[in-house]
Amino acid sequence: MVPRAESTFPSLPALSLALLLLLSVPLAQAQAQGQKTWCVAKPSSDEATLTANLNYACSQVDCSILQRGCGCFYPDNLISHASIAMNLYYQSRGRNYWNCYFKNSALVVTTDPSFGSCVYEYI
């Protein structure tokens, strides 16, 4: 029998935990410094994911701002509507990084994504 060499690489769960902790540090620092944060959809997210995020967020928070004639209806596209709904959810749940995960299809940003008459809520 040939002895099996010990692996010098960390396990996948250990790597995942380390990555999660590293990614949460900038957000925690931003919030500790009193910096405002918002949640937006990743531009690389696919339509099915954005649709699911929009539907889920709007089942949990009031998304009436996305209705025709309201301030955030335009631009009338999926990524814009999903971002607004995801931010409403994130804000309403206390701005914790895990409330902006959406199956890894969202980003926490420190630049206000508001535009025109559409003001991204910050609670």
TrEMBL record:
Name of the protein in question: X8 domain-containing protein
Gene Ontology cellular-component annotations: plasmodesma
Protein biosynthesis as UniProt keyword: no
Keywords in alphabetical order: Signal
Signal peptide: 1-30
Domain X8, residue spans: 37-120
Taxonomic lineage from the root: Eukaryota, Viridiplantae, Streptophyta, Embryophyta, Tracheophyta
